[in-house]
Amino acid sequence: ETGERALIAGLVGDRPGVWDLAGEIPTAVLRELGRQGLLCAQVPERYTGRGYTSERNGELTAYVGSLCSSLRSVMTSQGMAAWTVQRLADAGQRQAYLPLLTGGKLAAVAFSETEAGSDLSAIGTRITEGGDEVVVDGAKVWVTGASYADLVLVVGRCTDGAGVVVVPADAPGVRIEKVADPLGCRAAGHASVRLDSVRLPSSALLGGGGQPLPLLVTTALAYGRMSVAWGCVGILRACLDAVTEHARTRYQSGRPLAEHQLVVRHLAELLVAEQSATRVSEHASRCWDGGAPDQVTATVLAKYLSSVHAVRGAASAVQVLASAGATDGHVVARAYRDAKLMEIIEGSSEICQLILGQHALSR
Ligand code: FAD
């Protein structure tokens, strides 16, 4: 663990603020982390992955999230792509794609469309099967990591049911266009992906397609939600560190901020947020690792609670740092912008509440 953290710290250095302002992470950094298998560390060893448990991968995700939410977002997409392949592909496709994902190739997962946001049943992208090829037509929006991706996993409708097709970013008919000036996670490579009559061999359609759309979506999102939950733990840890350091060293009215009770309350609330987010994420990962029947609910709960706490915690951190944290590249300023987006993705807070409310009713 120490070795991998040192490797990541060495590659990231003090550059996340600069990456955030530039809206870009150097591809060499992403490829190196990819080659080390660290962007999707749960891939089993038999597919050349690191074979981490969800809990160990979660702690790694939190560590990356504490340094740079843009990088952590790319990691979430890569992990979600790998998990989708692991779950939906046939044996040959797993052998073909997973070593690529642990070998430096970068991937993104595309569900969302202009008219299909929270309601993915409105997906209109078509995967037309014919002979030994498939043709993909559609337009995806806000795909994290797509501007870096070699492969985009595209969710669409098949003749029968739905499917996920692995589309090389350089295939004829694919057009990837970066989202201009996102609110947060600015270097995460969000992009729209247009697919116009993209012809691919039928081996690109995972598991042959024809699966129920809700199954595909739930499978991929399960990983994404877990990853976001742990990423938010990282945001909270970064905020807690910045705030405690500042409260100890900044003096006002003749005393350190840490001796002003109203500031201490912010510290206490941040600690509670970080600990609560850690505990629910650990619980969800342990459910995942143990194959517990309620792992879906545990994951939604972890994503919901961690992202809500991250939003509040980052706001408190900016409050305590005040002018010292109120510039664009500062860790708490980034946290403030990045955290808000975590309440929107992989099932917004409202969608999580709907799922949790249904769970409450069914108990
Ligand atoms: P809408 O669905 O229009 O929702 C608007 C508001 O209404 C939200 O507050 C929502 O919670 C609420 N709402 C909607 N329906 C209901 C309901 N039934 N009940 C109660 N409230 C409701 N997509 C991908 O496919 N791949 C990615 O990698 C990806 N990465 C993203 C990264 C970022 C930073 C962002 C911002 C988006 C990303 N998305 C990605 C898209 C993301 O999944 C959608 O933005 C999200 O699902 C919400 O959809 P929407 O933005 O269209 O909002």
Give a description of the structure.
There is one protein chain. This protein has 363 residues and is α+β, with helices and mostly antiparallel strands. It has helices at residues 2-12, 16-22, 27-35, 54-67, 69-88, 91-101, 213-249, 261-290, 295-321, 331-342, 349-362, and strands at 107-110, 126-130, 133-143, 151-157, 162-168, 174-178, 191-201, 251-252, 255-256. Helix content is 53%, strand content 15%. The strands form 3 sheets. Strands 2-3-7-6 form a 4-stranded antiparallel beta sheet, with no helix packed on it. It is globular and about 80 Å long. 50% of the residues are buried. The model has no long low-confidence stretch (mean pLDDT 97). Flavin-adenine dinucleotide (FAD) binds next to strand 1, strand 3 and helix 11.
Write the layout of secondary structure elements.
Elements: H1 2-12, H2 16-22, H3 27-35, H4 54-67, H5 69-88, H6 91-101, E1 107-110, E2 126-130, E3 133-143, E4 151-157, E5 162-168, E6 174-178, E7 191-201, H7 213-249, E8 251-252, E9 255-256, H8 261-290, H9 295-321, H10 331-342, H11 349-362
Parallel strand pairs: 1-4
Antiparallel strand pairs: 2-3, 3-7, 4-5, 6-7, 8-9
Bound molecules: flavin-adenine dinucleotide (FAD).
Flavin-adenine dinucleotide (FAD) is lined by residues 77, 109-112, 117-118, 142-144, 185, 190, 341, 344-345, 348, 350-351, 354.
